[in-house]
Design brief:
single chain; about 450 residues; 14 strands; binds pyridoxal-5'-phosphate; PyrdxlP-dep_Trfase_major; aminotransferase; transferase; DegT/StrS_aminotransferase; pyridoxal phosphate binding
C-alpha cells in the first residue's frame, strides 16, 4: 500500500548496540573528579571496609578482597596455591584468553571441558572423565549473566579434593549472589562493559582464611595504581560513553555505518583492558579513587535496574521466531548480561540485520573457545578407579560445542535502554531476516538475502 507509510518508516534504524556502559555521565565525571581528590589512608580504609561489608552476607561470609580486576585476584590465588608445575586445571571451554594464559603462566596445563549452549553448564560426564591424578582445580565461568548450578561441580571437586575457581566476572547481580561459599574463590568483575561498572575493579571472595591472608600479604607488596592511571582509563571511556549513549551520537554512528564506515572494531579495541604485558599490568593494588567508585556504585546498586534488563530481554525473547536459537535459555538463573543468538551464517545474518537497521555484532566480547594444551599429549595418569576405562581420544576431549558456539554467535543489541516498541520491531526484523536467509538457501546466493532485506526496508 504505497503512500501509507513513508519509505523506511516501518523499519527505522535502531541506534542501539550489543554492549552498553551501565553507568551515567555524572558517574563518569564523578569518577574523574575523584582522581584529583586527596584520599587519606583513613578514606581508603573506609572504602575497603564498606566493600567488605557489602560482600559479607550471612549465606557467604568468606573474606572479601577488592582488587584491580578479576585477573589480579586470579593470579594472586595461583601464586599462593603454588600448584606443582604440570598440574592440570579443568576449565569450562569459553572464557577470555587471559584466563588460560594466566594458568599457563603458572606452568599449569589447561584442560578445557565442553559446555551445553542451552544451559551453559559444563558436560559433567566429560568433566569426571577428565579428572586425573594431576588435576588440581576446576574453573567454571558463569557466562553472559547466566548463573549455573554449582552443585555437581562442587561435589565432583569434593570427591577428588580439587579447588574450585568460580568465575563470576559476567554475572554480578547484586548481593543476593556473591558466589557459592564452598568455592575456593569466586571472582566478580566491574570492567567497563559489566553490570554496575566502576570502570575497572574486581572483587574476590576466598574460602580459606589462610589462603586469603597470604593473598592479602602479597597484594600489599604490589604498587598502588596511581590516580593518573585510573583517570587515563576514564578519559578514554567518556567519548565512548558519549558515542554509545548520548543523543544524537548513537544515531550519527549508525548513519556513518550505513555510509560504509564502521567504528565498532575501533571502539571495542578501546575496551581492551591491558593489551600488553598482562602479568606486569595486573599486579597493582587499586587506586583509592577506584575503590571509592566501587564502594559508591555498589552501595547504590538498584535491583530494579537489573529487573528491567531481564524483563526487556525476556520480552524480546518471547517475540523471537522459534527458528532463532538463543544461548543459555535453559540456565538456572538468567540476568541477560548479553543477548547471544546462534545462527548458521553469522556474517550474513549481521549484514541482513544491518540492511534493516539493526546493529548486531560478533566481536562484542573478548570471549573465545579454549583449545586443549597439547591435544595429542595424554593427560596425567588416570585415577585408580578409572584405570579400566579407555583413555579419552583428543577428539573426545575437544570442546566442539564451545567452538561451535563462538563460531556462530551474534550479540543482539538488546538491553534495558531499548524501548519496548523497538524490541518488537527488532524481533520482527529477526523474523524477516530468518525468512530471507531461508529463502536464499533454496533459491539463490547469499547476497540475495541482503538485497531482499534492503528492498524490504526501502519499499516500506
Ligand atoms: C568470563 C570472564 N572472566 C574473566 C574476565 C576478566 O575480568 P577483569 O577484566 O576484571 O580481569 C572477564 C572480563 O572480561 C570475563 O568476561
Amino acid at each position: 500500500m504505497q503512500g501509507v507509510t513513508k519509505k523506511g518508516r516501518a523499519f527505522p534504524n535502531l541506534p542501539y548496540s550489543a554492549v552498553i556502559i551501565d553507568s551515567t555521565y555524572s558517574r563518569l565525571l564523578y569518577a574523574a573528579r575523584q582522581c584529583f581528590v586527596y584520599h587519606t589512608q583513613n578514606n581508603r580504609a573506609a572504602y575497603l571496609k564498606q566493600l567488605q561489608q557489602l560482600w559479607a552476607q550471612d549465606y557467604n561470609s568468606n573474606p572479601v578482597m577488592p582488587c584491580l580486576c578479576v585477573r589480579t585476584a586470579f593470579d594472586l590465588f595461583l601464586q599462593v596455591k603454588q600448584f606443582p608445575p604440570g598440574s592440570e586445571v579443568i576449565m569450562t571451554a569459553i572464557n577470555i584468553k587471559d584466563m588460560p594464559f594466566l594458568l599457563q603462566h603458572h606452568k599449569l596445563r589447561v584442560v578445557p571441558v565442553d559446555m551445553d549452549p542451552d544451559t551453559l553448564e559444563p558436560d559433567m560426564v566429560l568433566m569426571e572423565r577428565l579428572v586425573t591424578q594431576r588435576t588440581v582445580a576446576i574453573l567454571v565461568a558463569h557466562l553472559y549473566g547466566r548463573i549455573i548450578n554449582m552443585e555437581p561441580v562442587l561435589s565432583l571437586a569434593q570427591k577428588h579434593n580439587l579447588s574450585v575457581i568460580e568465575d563470576c566476572a559476567e554475572c554480578f547481580s547484586g548481593f543476593s549472589h556473591v558466589g557459592d561459599p564452598r568455592s575456593d574463590i569466586s571472582l566478580f568483575s566491574f570492567g567497563i562493559i559489566k553490570f554496575s561498572t566502576s570502570f575497572g575493579g574486581g572483587i574476590a571472595k576466598v574460602r580459606d582464611p589462610k589462603v586469603y591472608e597470604k593473598m592479602v600479604a602479597r597484594h600489599k607488596q604490589y604498587p598502588v595504581q596511581t590516580c593518573a592511571m585510573y583517570l587515563k582509563k576514564i578519559l578514554k571511556y567518556i567519548p565512548l560513553y558519549t558515542i554509545l549513549h548520548v543523543w544524537p551520537f548513537p544515531a550519527m554512528v549508525q548513519k556513518s555505518r550505513e555510509m560504509g564506515v564502521d567504528w565498532k572494531d575501533t571502539f571495542v579495541s578501546f575496551l581492551r583492558g591491558f593489551p600488553n604485558n598482562l602479568v606486569q599490568n595486573i599486579r597493582y593494588q587499586p587506586s583509592s579513587a577506584l575503590l571509592c567508585i566501587m564502594a559508591k556504585v555498589q552501595s547504590e546498586f538498584n535491583p530494579s535496574e537489573l529487573a528491567l534488563q531481564r524483563v526487556k530481554c525476556e520480552y524480546f525473547l518471547s517475540n523471537l521466531p522459534p527458528s532463532l536459537k538463543v544461548v543459555g535459555t535453559k540456565s538456572q538463573v538468567n540476568h541477560f548480561w548479553l543477548f547471544p543468538v546462534l545462527v548458521e551464517k553469522p556474517d550474513l545474518f549481521i549484514s541482513c540485520l544491518a540492511a534493516l537497521g539493526v546493529d548486531a555484532y560478533r566481536g562484542a566480547t573478548q570471549l573465545n573457545y579454549i583449545e586443549p594444551d597439547g591435544p595429542n599429549i595424554p593427560l596425567g595418569p588416570p585415577l585408580p578407579h578409572h584405570e579400566t576405562l579407555s583413555p579419552l581420544t583428543p577428539d573426545e576431549r575437544y570442546p566442539h560445542r564451545c567452538r561451535d558456539l563462538i563460531e556462530h554467535v551474534v550479540y543482539m543489541p538488546v538491553n534495558k535502554y531499548v524501548p519496548f516498541y523497538m524490541l518488537e520491531q527488532m524481533a520482527r526484523v529477526c523474523r524477516i531476516v530468518m525468512l530471507s536467509m531461508e529463502g536464499t538457501a533454496v533459491h539463490g546466493s547469499e547476497s540475495m538475502a541482503v538485497e531482499t532485506c534492503k528492498t524490504i526496508k526501502s519499499k516500506l
